[in-house]
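Example S7 (structure tokens).
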């Protein structure tokens, strides 16, 4: 199904505006550390994502990066993937502005500031989610980035619902939330978990609902536990957020965007991609990665994607094992020839993560 030919039903889902950008659909691909490079973003765009974000980059690293061939993938933006956002993370406010400018110079259409990463070593270096504990520093970062980049470039922020669930943390969340919008950010993405929670337990959609009600016309995107097309629809309808960002749910399953478009148009959930459809996308993903990184360097990078792609194959355990055993470039073709040479139905990925809908009744009441 061609996502471009699917029209939204009136009153179902609306277009998403991020500053001057008008996106025809409010379900986008999130920044994914170690994953959302150019090949993944291009595949997601072709399969229905109206906007993607690159993997988070350290501000100091971007400023100091030499323009060498082996480094080119950090700045690569394909013509077909606009608009795409560059996400920055760091500790010192003064490092953000030059890094943001460099990303704009290389063609990124949006600058996203990461105040949500919960990884321990990131927090230990006063980056990412750590900034939710220090509103003054967080807002200084936002101010410097907004002042540095051209007015037509939207600046956005990624947050979690707080460091923890204390009253102090909640107060700091809203101080940063209000302050960032006052400084001119175009949208804020809120993940429904706390920093201390990391990825344990469900994302609290009730909090997202509260935040969007509080925000009014200000653009808020939701994040957390979006592993199926139905979950994307459910989050928007239940919380009222203006859009959602699909993170882990898009790794190895870029079809989630076309599937969500279909549901939004009032159509049944499409069947999972067939083995031939999976093969074609995996081949193209590999081709893009090999072109960008070279035949040797792309192997370990593609292995982590193959693990996820294999979940859509009926014999996913065996397929995953064979993909993980590939040690030379030609090995990929051998696995595809073995497991994807005969057409057959695929399967939807087995989702073990909770879908944190409050209740079915709550969803149908909004």
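Recovered sequence:
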């Amino acid at each position: 199904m061609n996502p471009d030919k699917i029209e939204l039903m009136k009153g179902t889902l609306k277009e998403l505006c991020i500053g001057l950008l008008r996106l025809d659909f409010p379900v986008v691909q999130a920044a994914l550390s170690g994953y959302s490079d150019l090949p993944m973003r291009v595949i997601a765009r072709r399969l229905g994502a109206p906007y993607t974000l690159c993997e988070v980059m350290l501000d100091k690293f971007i400023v100091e990066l030499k323009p060498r061939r082996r480094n080119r993938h950090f700045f690569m933006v394909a013509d077909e993937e606009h608009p795409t956002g560059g996400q920055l993370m760091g500790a010192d406010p003064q490092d953000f502005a030059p890094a943001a400018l460099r990303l704009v110079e290389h063609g990124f259409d949006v600058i996203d500031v990461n105040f949500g990463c919960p990884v321990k070593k990131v927090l230990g270096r006063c980056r990412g989610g750590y900034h939710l504990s220090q509103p003054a520093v967080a807002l200084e970062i936002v101010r410097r980035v907004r002042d540095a980049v051209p007015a037509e470039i939207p600046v956005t922020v990624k947050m979690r619902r707080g460091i923890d669930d204390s009253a102090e943390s909640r107060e700091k969340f809203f101080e940063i939330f209000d302050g960032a919008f006052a400084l001119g950010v175009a949208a804020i993405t809120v993940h429904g978990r706390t920093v201390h929670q990391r990825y344990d337990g469900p994302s609290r959609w009730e909090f997202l609902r509260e935040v969007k009600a509080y925000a009014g016309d200000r653009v808020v995107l939701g994040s957390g536990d979006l592993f199926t097309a139905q979950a994307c629809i459910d989050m928007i309808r239940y919380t009222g957020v203006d859009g959602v960002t699909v993170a882990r749910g898009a790794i190895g399953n870029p079809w989630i965007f076309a599937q969500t478009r279909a549901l939004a148009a009032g159509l049944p959930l499409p069947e999972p991609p067939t083995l031939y459809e999976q093969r074609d996308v995996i081949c193209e993903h590999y081709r893009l990665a090999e072109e960008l990184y070279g035949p040797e360097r792309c192997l370990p990078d593609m292995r982590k994607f193959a693990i996820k792609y294999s979940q859509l194959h009926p014999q996913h355990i065996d397929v995953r094992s064979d993909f993980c055993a590939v040690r030379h470039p030609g090995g990929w073709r051998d696995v595809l020839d073995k497991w994807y040479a005969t057409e057959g139905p695929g399967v939807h990925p087995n989702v073990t993560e909770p879908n944190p809908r409050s209740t079915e009744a709550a969803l149908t009441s909004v």
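Notes on this example. Confidence is low (pLDDT under 50) at residues 1-11, 358-366.
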